Amino acid sequence: MPPPVSFLPPGESDDSDPADRYARQRLLPWWDQDRLAAARVVVAGAGAVGNEALKLLALIGVGEIVVVDFDTVSPSNLSRTVLFRTEDVGRPKAELAARRTREINPEVHVAAIDGDIGRDLGLATLAGADVVLGGLDSVNARWILNRRCQQAGVPWINAGITASDVQVSRHVPGDGACYECTFTEGMARRFNERYSCTGLVRRTPDRTVPTTAIGASVVAGLMVHDALRFLHDPATGLQAGQRQTLLLDGYRQFLDDLPVDPDCPAHTEPVRDWVTTDHDPATTTARELAFAAGLPEATRMDLTFELILSFTCPGCGVTENIGRPTVAVYEEEILCPTCRQERVVARGTRIPLDGPLGGQPLASLGVPPHDLVAVGIGDRPGTWLETGGSSPWRSSPSRPTHRHPEIALTGAQR
Ligand SMILES: [Zn+2]
Ligand SMILES: [Zn+2]
User: Fold this and answer.
1) How far is the CA of 270 from the centre of ligand 1 (A)?
2) Do both 235 and 283 map to the same domain?
3) What is the Å distance from ligand 1's center to 179 Cα?
4) Looking at the domain assignment, is residue 185 inside a domain?
5) Fewest CB within a 10 Å sphere: which of 55, 174, 289, 368?
6) What is the pLDDT of residue 403?
7) 90 conformational bin, left if phi > 0, alpha if psi -120 to 50, beta if neither
8) Mean pLDDT for the chain?
9) Do 126 and 220 sit in the same domain of this protein?
10) pLDDT (tens digit, 9 = 90+) per residue, 320-367?
11) How many angstroms does the Cα of residue 334 sit away from the middle of ligand 2?
């Protein structure tokens, strides 16, 4: 009888446990399954790249995933999205993707946010992630995710696909180039196509790029590999501000160190310390939140995103309070409903608590659950508060290291 055929290199034996789901990957010398089981990853976008990334994260056994997408499944998605079926057309991508990801591996906790990355993903939720994966298809969506990750102090990995190549770049707040540092004239032009000259959102058709499932699969593989390297040791994998480009037909790849733009407007000090609250923004006004947090003398609330505060008509002299995120106000709304003149826009991030916006539920101003807002008096430094509501993370909404409940809400602020 011939000896059993071994597929292992001479001198190595397979002593892995066949009953262990993760037996083969545990054989990698740098692998730590427990680290991955404890990891939290946000997947921004549940399109072609997001689907592939979710599939890989679930197979690998990454502990917690939050997937965010505002869109519904369309027939043209079905050639590139492994998690969607024909009967899914018209249904929300994020919820379906979460459910199918759980089917791949029930040990993984997957939550869906059926909403917009900029408006519906609270900054504290984002800050609770170890790393964010960007499977996005527009400059505008990447711009907002980059801004939010800078504010939350969370690294993100950006994936991009063209007809001929795929790219992955790692962006770490405070270290190396961020996505906005890489803005070229072409990107700025595409970004501005979405906005009118008054800075309001234009209804433009989505720009579509010729792609196949192959590009999405390759780029998601590279992105998830870099995320695993980062989760094990941030010094491994791509460096901060580094971009990997793979030519699909040229069979070549390159690495670029993206230059840092010292004047990049996205660079900001991330929010590090905040006080958690249980107050759901759907039912709490800015004034109520300040009061509940023990800051009844507060005069203002600062948001981490810009609002259109009001429109004033030069013809009628009437001011209409708007109080919605700039990214949610469309250009045609600038016209006065009475005389059709173009109105003057007031925008900002600050809400006076004694004004009309201070008495509106925070959700109506665009503040999502587990977002961060700063409450203070006049121009003095404020206190950061985390809004309540349901959290997509299984355990605490934000990382214990970020939480400083011992900060007195009295004292310095008074
Ligand atoms: Zn930058
Ligand atoms: Zn008017």
Assistant:
1) 13
2) no
3) 6
4) yes
5) 174
6) 38
7) left
8) 90
9) yes
10) 999 999 989 999 999 999 999 999 999 999 999 999 999 999 999 999
11) 10
Question: Is the confidence at residue 36, as pLDDT, over 60?
Answer: yes
Looking at the DSSP bridge assignments, the partners of residue 175 are 172
Tell me what percent of the residues of the chain surpass a pLDDT of 90. 80
Cα of 320 from ligand 2 centre, angstroms? 10
Question: What are 328's two structure tokens?
Answer: 């949610």
What pLDDT does residue 402 have?
37
Q: Indicate if 62 and 195 belong to the same structural domain.
A: yes
Looking at the structure, tell me whether residues 160 and 284 fall in a common domain: no
Sorting pLDDT into bands at 50, 70 and 90, what band is 184?
Answer: confident
229: alpha, beta or left? (left if phi > 0; alpha if psi -120 to 50):
alpha
Confidence (pLDDT) at 12: 55
For residue 251, the model assigns a pLDDT of 82
Same domain, 55 and 173: yes
Cα separation, 133 vs 183, in Å, equals 19
Residue 267 lies in a domain: no
Domain co-membership, 105 together with 221: yes
Judge whether 132 lies within some domain: yes
CA of 343 to the centre of ligand 2 (A): 7
Cα of 343 from ligand 1 centre, angstroms: 33
Tell me 354's DSSP state: T
| Range(s) of the domain holding residue 318 | 279-388
C-alpha of residue 361 to centroid of ligand 2, in Å? 28
pLDDT average, residue stretch 404-411: 34
| Cα 363 from Cα 354, distance rounded (Å) | 18
Indicate which CATH number applies to the domain containing 194.
3.40.50.720
**pLDDT exceeds 50 at position 380:** yes
Distances (CA, A) of 338 to 141, 311, 318, 319, 333: 34, 13, 10, 12, 12
